[in-house]
Fold this protein.
Amino acid sequence: MAPYESDDSTGAEEIDDLRSGRRKAARYVVPVAVVGVAAATIGLVPALADSGDPNLPKITAQQLIEKIAKSDVQQLSGTVKISTDLGLPDLGGLEGSIASGATKGGDGSSADPTSKLTELASGTHTLRVAADGPDRQKLSLIESAAEYSIIHKGKDVWGYDSKSNEVYHGTASEDGKKHKDEAPATPKDFADEALKSVDDTTSVTVDGTAQVAGRDAYKLVVKPKQSGTTVGAISIAVDAKTGLPLKFTLTPASGGAAVVDAGFTQISFSRPAASTFDFTPPKGAKVTEHEHGSTRAPEHAPKSDEDLAKGLDGLKVLGKGWNSVATFDTGSKGGVPSASGSGNLSGLLGSLGDQVTGRFGKGTVFSTRLVNALITDDGKVYVGAVTKGALVKAANAGQ
């Protein structure tokens, strides 16, 4: 460990400063993921080997938070490796069917970012990213013998899937902000989301230095003070010169491999060539124009989707800090069908969950290494980065 190391932890008196820092940080984000990315938990396997602990000046957690907030990187290009280990069961090809259904629910194109980038929710992936200010960004997902790219230039946003030769065309948000359904795709995105959770239930410390993608960096560690959460710790490698987060690692409370571990393997802060952001639909490509103000529902969607939407409007949050649990009422009674309905999706889902009971009644808990969800037989849903026991407790208290 480098000799400068500090274990100074932020206390309750610094929480307002942290929140102020997060608000400032949001203004300086280089929005690499530029449009319509479906919400997903994505991460990176530990592919970045540290090459020694650089000797850097001592810094406190508060100062490092402020350094992130003041980061104003406008130009960059590089490579990010991504993977996730949520501990999801093998669905035997069902993922493809679900992804297909999601595509139909969007604009009907395999190049629609809303459905395409959900692939980052599992497996190992390589991304190439480039940015030149708020109006020009590019993200490319490198696949086997294929490539998928999102290009934002001015008002235009293009998605191109070389495998299917399909093109998606939409327009960027006028206010320059990320859409609410976009998922994080870079260490900066992840860091911003993580720092929103910092309050008096959180410990924040500086834990040494590292080298990431050839850059000297400080390591910021965020840990829940509460028990009952599935989050063990979050480590953010922050570029010592620019303040840009270079690597993000989330380890579960249960131990083992990281659930989320996102980082650059190569990065340059030089201005990318202007041609990087040029795009013209290839000859013969199918071009789908985004239908503004409307989102088509999947074919043969059940009527209960209307009840689900009403339930989401009534979303509530129970608990505090890392033990927060979101809950809503789907309006659909009967819960999750049991495994007796084998041979169909309902039976499969029922067999994957654990049956639980409590003052709330009966229900089924679906678990990953990070996020757990309880669906009760009377149609209520409880979800959070908490243990199964904490979910049941929240459901009991919510009655």
